[in-house]
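Input sequence (389 aa), recorded before submission:
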Amino acid sequence: MTAINPRHSSFKLAILFALIHSVYPFLTPTTAATISSSFSTTTSYSSSVTSISTPSTDNTLSSALAMSDSSQNQNDNISQGQTIGFIGCGTIASAIATGLLTQQNPDHLIHKVYVTKRSEAKSAALSNRFGQKIVVTEDNQNIVDHSDILFLCVLPQHEESVLKALDIPHDKTLISLIPSRLVFHPPCAINRSRTIMDHCLLCNSTSKLFTLIQNSKLPPSNVYKMICLPAVADLEGTPLLVPTAPSTSNLPSLISTLGGSKDSCIQCENEDIMEAMMVSTCMMGPVYGLLKANRDFLIEKGVPAKDANNVVARQYWGMTKDALVRSQEEGREIDSLDVLIEEQTPGGLNEQTLRNLESAGVMDRYKDAMESVLARIQGKTDGSMMGGK
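Predicted structure, token format:
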């Protein structure tokens, strides 16, 4: 007799199992032994079948149908998608949850999203928007128990206490998005004429993987760090993930849905690479500052404020979109930005403006700013540009 896969034929197996019980007393010992031996190969029901000795048809049918229903419910939960949990519900957590529930990739359906109540405004907004898809709770262990993937989004000073208080099964996946942590100098080192921020040093911008593994007690292969911007709520942006996931893992594919394309998630080989790539996310403020300077210049020249704001935002969006499209062209994955610069008309306005900025040292200062923020990310300095004004 061919073994039946209970995951796909649980109901049929239950009925067949009950029928065999009903005729079992009338079978010859040899036939009964053959049937029992054959059914012992079905893993989900082997213990029940091989223990047949005093059959009761009614009880057996009820038990078999109950097992069938249980198996069917389990399969239904699998087909409904994954359950995601967020311990901490701030801006980034809310953005990721929104993105995951908005994306429509059939391979990454989301069944439920469990979130902590804090911040209450964020969790309430998620609940109002997505209804029964969102479960708000103040019990972190409840989130762990119900989730396949856990996003850790608490303040850095709470990381250790939160993780050590949890019992996380080894089949769960943990992704940390813990932000920067400021550590104060001892009081004796403080010059009271300076501000408090002058006496802060930044430890590692995100927790080290080793610390996360140690505090969570999870296998290293199940622990990740991730960096993204709030734009993932609109399925825009480029999430960074470290370490590189196994080829059999669908995690990078899931995270890529937050960027709106299958390759939007960039996997970093190690934490050093991720920290370097984080510098680009730290250029968001400078880019907005550049746009503002451009807008304010137009307003000073008499352009209506509404028009100035709109034209600057749209023009820079067009430039950025062009850069993205070019970077995805075959053979241009590395030098697309160089090509765009080379395309500027020699002696034209764009080329001259770039050269003016370069000769004034603006690009060098940009590089200095990036080196400084990287040093802060690495916990080496407070991020100030030494010798800067």
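Checked by second reader. The longest strand covers residues 110-116.
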